[in-house]
Amino acid sequence: MYSMFLCFLFASFVLSTVDADTPANCSYEDIRGTWIFHVGSLKYDKTVQCTSVGPVKSVVKVNLLFPDVAVDQFGNKGFWTIIYNQGFEVVVHGRKYFAFSKYSGTLKNSTSYCDETMPGTTHDVIGREWGCFIGKKLAPSVEPKRTIIKLDKAFNPDQLYQRNVDFVAKINNVQKSWKAVHYPEYETMTMRDMVRRAGGVKSRVLGKPRVAPSSDNLKKLVAALPKNFDWRNRDGVDFVPKVRNQEACGSCYAFASVEMNEARLRIATNNTVQLTFSPQDVVECSEYSQGCDGGFPYLIGGKYAEDFGLVEESCRPYSSKPGKCVTKQSCARHYSTDYRYVGGYYGACNEESMMLALYKNGPIAVSFEVYNDFIHYKGGIYRHTKFADELNRFNPFDLTNHVVLLVGYGHDPVSGLKYWVVENSWGEGWGEDGFFRIIRGTDECGIESMAVEISPIF
Ligand SMILES: *[C@@H]1O[C@H](CO)[C@@H](O)[C@H](O)[C@H]1NC(C)=O
Ligand SMILES: *[C@@H]1O[C@H](CO)[C@@H](O)[C@H](O)[C@H]1NC(C)=O
Ligand SMILES: *[C@@H]1O[C@H](CO)[C@@H](O)[C@H](O)[C@H]1NC(C)=O
Fold first, then answer.
1. Is the peptide bond before 213 cis (omega within 30 degrees of 0)?
2. Is 387 helix (H, G, I), strand (E, B) or coil?
3. Residue bearing the CA closest to ligand 2, atom 9
4. Roughly how many angstroms between the first and final C-alpha of the chain, as a whole number?
5. Would you say residue 390 has pLDDT above 90?
6. Residues 6 or more apart whose Cβ sits within 8 Å of residue 402
7. Given 197, 356, 381, 439, which is the most exposed site by the fewest CB atoms within 10 A?
8. Which stretch of DSSP H or E encloses residue 260?
C-alpha cells in the first residue's frame, strides 16, 4: 500500500527541508493595477545582490493593464507578465524590472502580500546599469492572502520507495491507452528522492492558469500544420539533444531549460552547432532558482540564459548535488533572448499556440503535474487514471511541478487520440526511450497552461 503511505510521508519532509522562504501565491488579478517602483542606485553590474534597495534614487509609476501592456508615468508603453504565481516582470522605457511577490511564513502556513514585492532587480534591456527596486501597489488594493497547505504528519521522507505490484496491475486493467511497469531502481530511492525527481517542492504552482481560448486565426494557422510532427525526425534529421538523467535532484527545470536552448540552437544553425549545456551551473549558480529544490523555465531557460548565459557541460559536469557556485570565469557563456510564455504572457497558453511555437521555432519547455501513476509509465499515450486518485486522495507529488521538453505532436490513427511527444530527464531506460506521449487538447495535468520559449543567440 505504498500509495496510501505517500500522503503521510510527505508532510515532515516538506516541513523539515523548507523553512522560511516560501514562494508567494499571487494571481494575475492580484498584480494587475497601478504600481510604484522605488529604485536604488543603478551603478551595478549583474553580480548585484538585491537584499535591500538602499537609498532610493528614482521612482517609476507604472500601470499594468490587461492583457500585457505596461504604461509608465510618461506614457511609454511596454510589456508585463506575472511569472507563475511567484512575481512579475515589467519591460518599459528601455528597462526590465523583475521581482518576487512578498511573502512570509512557512511552506505549510504562509501569507502572500501581493501588493508588495521582495527587493527585485532592474537593468536596461541590453543588460547594463543594474540596480535594485521594491514595488508597492497603489490600486486596486489586495488583501494579504493566507495559504494553508494541509499535510499529514506521519510521512517519512527517508523511507525507501516500496514496490506496489497491485497498483501497477490496476493501472493496466482500468485503461488501455498506456502501459505501466514497475521500475526496480525506484526501490533504491527514498521518498525524498522521488519527490525531487518529480520537480522539487519549489517548482510547485498553486492554482494553475486556465487554458486561453483559441481564436479563428490561430485555428486557421494550425489547420495548415502537418498532422504529425517531431523534431527528432524533421525530414530525416534529429534536432533533439539526447535524453539525460537528473537523478535525485529537483533539477528538471534546469534540464528542460538547457535542452530547449540546445535544441533551438541546433535548429537555428541547421544542426551545425551541437552544444550540451550545464544544468549543474544552473543548480549551483542561479539566483533565479532553488538548486535541487526546483525552479522555473521562464527564469532559467529564459532570464538566466539572457542575463548570465549558459556554460557547457564540460565546464561544469553534472553531479546531481547542490553546492557552491564554482563555475570558472574562463568558461564560454552562451546566451539566448526574447524569453516568453507561449501565447505572449502567463495565462495566454493553449494547444494551438503551443503547436505553432513548436513547429515554427523548435522544442518548448512545458510544466505539468506528476501523479503517482505517471512514474510507472512505460509506453503509449498517458492520461491520468482517475482511480489512482481514489486510491490515494493525497498525492505526494501534488506540491511539485515537473518541467520537461516538448518535441513533437501527433495523432494515433487506431485510437483516434491526439498526443504530445515529450522528452523527460529520467534516463533513456524510462518510458519510450526516455520520452513519453501524453494526451493533447485537454490540458492533461496542466501541460497546456504554461509553456515557455526562447530565441537562441549565435
Ligand atoms: C498560521 O499562522 C498564523 C500566524 O503565524 C497563525 O495565526 C495561524 O493560526 C496559523 N494557522 C494554522 C492553520 O496553522
Ligand atoms: C493560490 O491562489 C489561487 C488563486 O489566487 C487559488 O485558486 C489557490 O487556491 C491558492 N492556493 C492555495 C493552496 O491556497
Ligand atoms: C541543412 O543541412 C543539411 C545536411 O544535414 C543540408 O542537406 C541542407 O542543405 C542544409 N540546409 C541549409 C538551408 O543549409
1. no
2. helix
3. 207
4. 52
5. no
6. 198, 199, 203, 252, 367, 368, 369, 370
7. 356
8. helix 252-268
> Which ligand 2 atom is the nearest neighbour of the CA of 25?
1
3-class SS at 379?
strand
Amino acid occupying residue 108: K
Q: What pTM, to 2 d.p., does this model score? A: 0.91
Per-residue confidence (pLDDT) for residue 9, from 0 to 100: 23
Contact 30, 85 (CB under 8 A): no
The pLDDT of residue 150 is 66
Q: List Cβ<8 Å contacts ≥24 apart for 351-355.
A: 351/211, 351/214, 351/440, 351/441, 351/443, 351/448, 352/214, 352/218, 352/219, 352/221, 352/222, 353/212, 353/218, 354/406, 354/448, 354/451, 355/222, 355/225, 355/409
Q: 170 C-alpha vs ligand 1 centroid, how far in Å?
A: 40
At position 123, the amino acid (one-letter code) is H
Tell me the average pLDDT of the chain: 89
Count of residues for the chain? 458
Query: Using a 6 Å cutoff on CB, does residue 20 contact ligand 1?
Result: no
CA-CA distance, 441 to 197, in Å (whole number)?
A: 26
Cα dist. 360→7, 167, 347, 363, 404 in Å? Answer: 42, 41, 21, 9, 19
Residue 161 binned pLDDT confidence (cut-offs 50, 70, 90): confident
In three-state form (DSSP H/G/I as H, E/B as E, the rest C), the secondary structure along 32-82 is CEEEEEEECCCCECCCCCCCCCCCCCEEEEEEEECCCEEEECCCCEEEEEE
Report which protein residue has its CA nearest ligand 1's atom 2.
109
Report the DSSP pairing between strands 120-124 and 109-117: unpaired
Q: Write the pLDDT tens digit of every residue in 163-179.
A: 888 889 999 999 999 99
User: Which region among 145-154, 271-280, 332-341 has the lowest average model confidence (pLDDT)?
Assistant: 145-154
Cell numbers 479563428: residue: 216
What cell numbers appear for 109 in the block? Answer: 502556513
Q: Are strands 109-117 and 87-92 parallel, antiparallel or unpaired?
A: unpaired
